[in-house]
Amino acid sequence: MNDSHRSPIRAFLPCLVVAIALCGTGATGAQQTTVQRGEYLARAGDCVSCHTATGGAPYAGGLRLDTPFGYMLAPNITPDADTGIGRWSSADFYRAMHDGVNKRNQDMYPTMPYDFFTKATRADVDAIYAYLRTIKPVRNAVDVNHLDFPFNQRWSMGAWRELYFSEGTFKPDATKTAAWNRGAYLVEGLGHCSDCHSPRNLLGGIEKSKDFTGAVIDGWFALDLTSDIATGLGSWTVEQIATYLKTGVAQQKTTTLGPMAEVIRNSLSYLTDADLQAMAEYLKSIPADSRLRTGRVAPDPTKQRGATLYLDNCSGCHQASGRGVPRVFPPLAGNGVVVAADPNDIIKVIDRGVSARSGFIAMPAFATQLTDQQVADIANYVRSSWGNKAPPNATATMVARMRAGPN
Question: Which SS3 state, helix, strand or coil, does residue 387 take?
Fold first, then answer.
């Protein structure tokens, strides 16, 4: 955790239903112990992904978290007394999650998304704390702060907090269903979905007017989760969204790529169907950002070149119409990865290929067969064909930069 006009009675009933829904964890059962519930909630928050270094012990920290301002190393949150949170009380832990202040009374860095976790209830945070206390203590001292000056100074977080942090537990909306509220609680709180799927400004704050509209993270583009019909989830059903969250695959839509695959593997695949359905219901209700509906760039004049390259290299599997073959080759028409506002993901797929997954066969890499410009031409062609209306904004420079970076 980085230091990271009805009668009164009728009006009361929906609130009671919502309150009951928020007290549970979906279909986790009344027999569940506090520790078991805490383990489930820690999965919902995907704590293990950030607090586990490659090859390291779970929750023992050390994972490098790159930012535009330097990097952080995720701290050890096992109950080791000297290097972990063994001396933290439940109140210390809740203060960190809810207020973003650590045991040493220091403002924490928002690489730990306390600006989302603040929405979690005290009972849920206490359950997570109880679970973490049962993990095997691991002695692993982590030097967390490797940010550049002045961001490596704790006082710099004061201004950030004033601008971008609003403390407060989630408040259910009595006009919505219990499932919608449960989904909102998970998506906006422990799930912290907007943390990756929203663009940020120069100070690292989320651009609130563009929540969930997609953003680049770790060199991948986290997709638009709004109801935009072209680039978001507007054409998805609630069931398709829930299935994707559970398995990483939505037939006739897309499959997971990049960091999202890890989120599904370590977190979402463990959640109950009821909770995933609730999250899907909430995501489906997020309004589209109107900026994505207008002002699209005209098709690239080199589209014919892209079409020729596509027919020579891609159509044998994905078909000339971009529809793919069910359960063998995914479709490119309407595929969220293809039509994302940013072309990073489709560029990586063309260049590096994709391993076999969830019934789909492997796609070969074209890194040694295509030039930077050819990869960009194919990306632009598939982004603007068969009803796809994404801007053909892939460039040879983008491809070259990606190829020069880490795999």
Answer: coil
